[in-house]
Amino acid sequence: MGKRVIVIGGGIIGASVAWHLARRGAEVTVLSAGPGPASGATFGWINASFYLDEAHFRLRQAGMAAWHRLEAVAGQGLVDWCGCLNWEEPDPAETARRLSGLGYAIRQLPGTELRVREPRLAGLSDTALHAPEEGIVEGAEAVARLLAGSGGVVLSGVKVSALLAEKGRVSAIDTNAGRFEADHVVLAAGTETAALLAPLGIELPMLQRPGMVLRTRPVEKVLSHIIVAPGQELRQDAAGRLVASTVGKHQEDRADRIAERPDLAAEATLARIAALLPGVDLELESVTLANRPMPADERPVIGAVGPEGLTVAVMHSGVTLAAILGELVAAEVMTGADDPLLRPYRPSRLIA
């Protein structure tokens, strides 16, 4: 019998961790209170062009490479490697120099090439940044594929009420469906992480970071890239839906509350999209609200915490980092490996 590992959380991080644990021979059970709200509401952009410091860049860059490795084993189609066109940067030449200096694939395009690449767009700039290696993951679809591919037991509708420790080690989990015993627990519960740690005397400071993602009804194919225009990020999914954050630069959004009603935010977002895509008949299909799991210093929290046998993995952006953290957390749980990529993100920096 393999090591019994319970993963709490059925979002993109929990699904990736479960998939990689199973590959290493663990006996995996995933407990999910329901569909992961952040994974289902994500814009889905895999990139390392947004980062907080060089260590964060290296982790995100490794995250992009790990998605390719995951696709090579789990099957192609998890990611649409469509690339990104960005003309929101105030100094695109400097941004290109900075990212190129870090070894990132990016170049500055003239407006003529931008218009060839995206002929349906209006209001184009005279120049844009092209990041050809960036991509899109449909969060809910990727979660379903990874959980199914893990071969583990996935129990949905199971809400964890307490982590139980005995003699300095996590030994079991109490839930609304009974008690589960485990050799190791991975806590990948997103915004619920802090509440589950608190009864163990572990205070993990988290930020309130709500976000909204809009989807239109399907339209004909009008976009070929992720679009980052002034004040609006936009993409198109395989079914033809246009997908947009209701705020510009959503990865840098530090608002702690939703400033306006979702329907009003959606109307304003649709107006911005209409200006970018004149002549396209836009109808709202859905607006999804979710709180993004954001530790207090805005960086991931990953690693052993509290009693022995407990690992935490909480962060934004989970989409970019899911594949690499699945690899590294599974290796750490099963072998004790201490990867240098994770050292800046240990829980001890935030937990006294």
UniProtKB/TrEMBL annotation:
It comes from the Bacteria. Residues 4-331 form the FAD dependent oxidoreductase domain. Pfam families: DAO (PF01266). One of its GO terms (molecular function) is oxidoreductase activity. InterPro entries: FAD-dep_OxRdtase, FAD/NAD-bd_sf. Keywords: Oxidoreductase. One of its GO terms (cellular component) is cytoplasm. This is Fructosyl-amino acid oxidase, putative. It comes from Oceanicola granulosus (strain ATCC BAA-861 / DSM 15982 / KCTC 12143 / HTCC2516).
